[in-house]
């Protein structure tokens, strides 16, 4: 039987995902190259990697060899560095359109500034945007730019591409969207500032910040404000679109997903056997067969094969997102399918470290017989395209005018790599900064205003290196411009939040996750061997009305003043116990990164250590 080869590539957007030669990435906002750790490139440090100019070179080299290759983008083009913070969708759209994408899929961060912040980006985007489970019926301006699937042809083959976005990012917002509009979103970077709205989930909440009063804008209750969008089940959406594609004579079906590697495996096990490949993003997972360059550790093979109960095998490829590090234009992974109808999953790490790359060999019956390829490491051997470097320069001048401001200096590394599993000095430093900012509100008989600070580790994206700390470095570490909230909470619900923080069990004794809390004003001991829900061995809270600050046992019936970002305060990441039980909510006028700018200027020299505020015992 005469076979044909199709190359697949995927790209994950500045926050991204993939095709038959499939090239791709999740290209989170990494226009500049980054350090190997994903932080700001240090010319005097290790050789820098990634960046849009290097990604462009790799894609164009691949297309020269395989001009019919598919290039897919895995979403999250927004967020991650000061480029998006200062220039928003305009810079993302401009440079995304320079790449020969066949399709994009929506990422959760595309909604970070509401539907109103997404529509202008889509209006000028050259390639189609997919979202089969994104029901925008009640957001007509958004609906006209979304497609459930597309069909492309390569070498006489019809290839269907279905896009899906992780539904659980927006669980409660779905029902809220069915009943009422929560208010118009206004970009906080505009001179007018945040707009007034009915509040979050219908509640009117006053902002009593250090510099004024207003109301909370339409906040990110979960991952982002999605307005009247209704998120539908991913598997049902894929099965529905796959049936439509088969009726139209499609040979090969690719799911371009922004749901994460674990969810990709679940979907692969449950979708109809007409689906051949899943090209995934969102979880920043590196899939690689063998030993990858640069000392990285892959989570699984490239591609990962999932066998369904009926014997059908699915192949999974995951995009490499730039989240967690320098998030713009992160390359993704490529996928392929082999005999036996497997489903492949591919993904290619983060920080534009890799470009996903895979070639599929498909027989005349439309069955993938074999594949070849690995993610391409975007190291110094890949030259930065000079034309792209020239195009970036005028945008960079605007970014650097704000981003290069020196705020202070650090004698140590503010490390975030431990934040998801134990105390990390970046989280401790940020929480100490929030507590410090509130001290001027303390009564005359109190030394402090808030007892406790809580920060979810998922909001801490990259480390801050020793040396000069700039606004750019700070915003790369905490890019989401969350507001800072202060509220009262009973001890029983604070304990509930602490238990939820370590409620995930991956392997015995391991509760690493993005919901792990970093704290200030607390001394917490977690028992890693205890069952979920009973892992807080002890918790002590620092007093604020005492002559000498000291830590006292947490009292379930006592009321404590908490400071946190609005993401978890509004119930995001599963922290519904905070939103449902807090009272007297106040919001600072400055967003989180501005609060920490003030703290850095006050400190000047950072020497944050690990002081034992979080301890893990077996």
From TrEMBL:
Keyword tRNA-binding recorded: no
E.C. number: 3.6.1.5
Cellular component, GO annotation: extracellular region; plasma membrane
Residue ranges with Basic and acidic residues bias: 16-26
PROSITE patterns tied to this protein: 5_NUCLEOTIDASE_2 (PS00786)
Transmembrane segments: none
Segments of this protein annotated with the region Disordered: 1-27
Every Calcineurin-like phosphoesterase domain range: 48-285
Family: Belongs to the 5'-nucleotidase family.
Name the UniProt record assigns to this protein: apyrase
Native source species: Eumeta variegata (Bagworm moth)
